[in-house]
Amino acid sequence: MNGIKVENISFSYTEGQPVLSNIDVHFRQESTAIIGQNGAGKTTFVKLLKGLLKPATGNIYVNGMNTQEYTVAQLAKQIGLVFQNPNDQIFKHTVIEEVMFGPKNIGQSTEEARQNSLLALEKIGIVHEADKNPYDLSLSDRKLVSIASILAMKPPIIIFDEPTMGQDYLGKERLKKIMKDLRAEGVLVLSIIHDMDFVAETFERTIVMNQGKIVLDGPTREVFSHEQLIRDVYLELPHATQLGKQLGLKQTFLTVDELINFNRKKQ
């Protein structure tokens, strides 16, 4: 089973100013959203999971590999990170070359890398763009290219950094399907995200961070039932959850469809 075990880690960029304090958490198979205000420590936490940073204290095990003992390149076969801004990730002249770069870098042959890259592009619906320059595509499609470049590497763990940024409704629906398909294939899917509606509709588990600590962790429905705590850390509830509260309903609704179906059954 794919997983990440975080044992009592702390981290600071400047001595005496902790960014993360005593984080202890285990990621198993549940698709998991990590939410919190800017400055809560989410991005730093994800960089530690990926091995881009090393904890000051404690240990992180990615599929049993202690990140303190392995390089980022060695960890790349186990864990992939889709950057928030695709322009920070894309540098090749064609989409297919861009998507093939990661697979070849972890040891796939040219033919294997090409095959996996075309499959990844087909999976996300832009295989017809394979020979185009990525910068001739929209920001939304460049984001999909950056996702394909990670999918083609076939890591058992994938982290998405703000995946819905710059995506319209159809783009979000496509992303939702990609993540749910990955989950069904046994991939551990994690995401830093500010889109609470997308969190409610997509992720099984939600972790709330505030001031470098985990303040809430559990099934997504349970997390969003803690209305006051969510507001205390300056986050908003999903729109369907808010609407249910405004209607005076005790249940915590994650989607508009749930709310509609509940009202139909009452009638």
Describe this structure in words.
The structure is a single chain. By secondary structure, the protein is α/β, with parallel strands linked by helices. It folds into two domains: 4-226, Rossmann fold (3-Layer(aba) Sandwich), CATH 3.40.50.300; 237-267. It has helices spanning 42-50, 72-75, 95-105, 110-124, 139-151, 169-184, 196-202, 220-224, 227-232, 239-246, 256-266; strands at 4-14, 17-27, 32-35, 57-62, 65-66, 79-82, 157-161, 188-192, 205-210, 213-219. The strands form two sheets. A six-stranded mixed beta sheet has the order 6-7-8-3-9-10, sandwiched between helices. It has a four-stranded antiparallel beta sheet with strand order 2-1-4-5, with helices on one face. Helix 6 links the parallel strand 7 and strand 8. The radius of gyration is 19 Å and the shape is globular. It starts with a strand and ends with a helix. Keywords: ATP-binding, Cell membrane, Membrane, Nucleotide-binding, Translocase, Transport. GO terms for molecular function: ATP binding; ATP hydrolysis activity; ATPase-coupled transmembrane transporter activity; cobalt ion transmembrane transporter activity. It is found in: Cell membrane.
Summarize the model shown:
This protein has 267 residues and is an alpha/beta fold. It contains eleven helices and ten strands. It has two domains: 4-226, Rossmann fold; 237-267.
Q: What does the largest sheet look like? A: 6 strands, mixed
Strand line-up of the largest beta sheet: 6-7-8-3-9-10
Label the structural class: alpha/beta
How much of the polypeptide forms β-strand, as a percent range? 15-25%
CATH fold-level topology of the largest domain: Rossmann fold
Rg value: 19 Å
Protein name: ABC transporter
Family: Belongs to the ABC transporter superfamily.
Keywords: ATP-binding, Cell membrane, Membrane, Nucleotide-binding, Translocase, Transport
Subcellular location: Cell membrane
